[in-house]
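WARN no homologs supplied; continuing
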Amino acid sequence: MSETVERHEFGAEVGRLLDLVVHALYSDREIFLRELVANAADAVDRRRFEALTGGVPGVPEGSAVRVVPDKAARTLTVTDPGIGMSKADMAENLGTIARSGTRAFTQSLADAKPGDRPSLIGQFGVGFYSAFMVAERVEVTSRKAGSDETWTWSSEGRGDYTLARAERAEPGTDIVLHVKADAEEFLEPIRLRTIIRKWADHITVPITIAEDGKDEPANEGTALWRKPKSEISAESYTEFYRHLGHNFDEPWATLHWHAEGTVEFTALLFIPGMKPFQVVEGERESRVRLHVRRMFITDEAALLPPWLRFVQGVVDTEDLPLNVSREMLQATPVLARIRKAVTNRVLSDLKTRAKEAEEYAKFWENFGPVLKEGIYEDTEHRKDLAGLLRFRSSAVEGWTSLADYVSRMKEGQEAIYVLSGDSAEALAKSPQLEGFRARGVEVLLLSDSIDAFWPERLGSFEEKPIRSVTQGSADLSKIAGGDAAQGEAADLSKLLPLLKDALKEDVSEVRATDRLVDSAVVLAAPEFGPDLHMQRLLQRAGRDFGSLNPVLEINPRHPLVRSLAAKAEAGDVAEAAGLLLDLARVQDGDTPRDPAAFARRVAEALATSLG
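OK structure emitted
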């Protein structure tokens, strides 16, 4: 082997992915061309931007992405004059797929039905790897703008690839697909033109197809957002949305408008109809594309706040110079005004659509957790966002809003009650709800990870404080519906001090409560400080909250508590105290302090009761 040729192994997961792509997606083969053309256009846009800021040579006049079929050689070449790739770029971008969630993708692809596979590709971003659906070998020759080195990446998609020095006169990339015998349809210019018109007609970079010795235009290259809405069909909007975000679903909402006044711009934005892969866990920056006079500038202008990062689209303005730098973007007041206007428009549209409960529920199930982040971090829009929130409830089916909750509040009820945890289904069965449910008091069930943080920031809604049912001592006696407690209450004057002394290392207080019906005990948080769910999160993070130990609340009417109160005269309740605390922890979805000791106590109690 020549010294300039290096052989590298794909990671095990990438090898499995390539195998699935090659053998499981034949019905969706045409997607490969859209992926390659879109990548080429992005490379051209990147070079244009870098050239505007003086970093690299500009794109030659009249340049285009060229698609060249060669039936005799059975090759299909996609050539672009874009930013190009260095050797390191090739190893990172073509030799790995770390950013695409390989393990999750391969499992989903293996499990999916054939009809579901196109959406999986769009969701996980297979991109370049889709070329192996039609090619038995792929060669990528690239020279990065600003560099004299050229390298060729080559692979047959069977677990390894090579990197070798090469020659290319100008910066850019050539991708050569050695087409499989059963994929020769993709060497026909008319077939290629149909695919490009379907998937890439709105790419503003010219795309040509070589035919009979000439490069024939293959895309219209129209900036769709510049057209009047009356001239754009729903199908055209959908095609552009799919091209823009490499999606396969229908947009849930399309927002298209032209703003005039102190700043002038045109915006075409989409709210997706399905949740993209890692929408919450991935990067938190908005990727709406900024164009100046139709030319792409950057998708890093943060045109929307992080809590609207699921919105995709284009904003095009005449009020910025073409050679605007990233530093200028951070400082210019023009962009600040655009950001404010675009954010307010999206919020206004969401408010309107929220009136259609069934349709809005689809949006909320996809992006509700992301929207809640705005309550936590955005003081300016907190009030508007509060009206858009939806929740599961202990009292009604489906989703409900804070406004609807307030309209159903009981006479004498002063607060909006919430309960946070990991699962709405588990929360609905929590003993924390017993007293509230018995009095007909509704509790909102919060099960998203962000729910541990935002309620404190919002504080109240329509002058009603938001209060965790686990935090402090809820005074239910003021609420119309009477006392839900049943049975005679035990005298706990002697039992409570004994329990407190036995559990002094584990609880901050032991007290009687009227918010239990069927359970003997329940945990509560101190009135000031984090609620129980937040305390558990802090524990998982290794944080010690010391004095914030929970409160153990005792139901004085429960048979178990009445029996313990009767035996309090003897003074030996240490064993029972530990069992009560562990019962309360288990009921709250937590684990006993000592699972083995807990199991032993339960076994002993059963043996005694059955003896």
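Residues 307 and 374 are 5 Å apart (CA to CA).
OK
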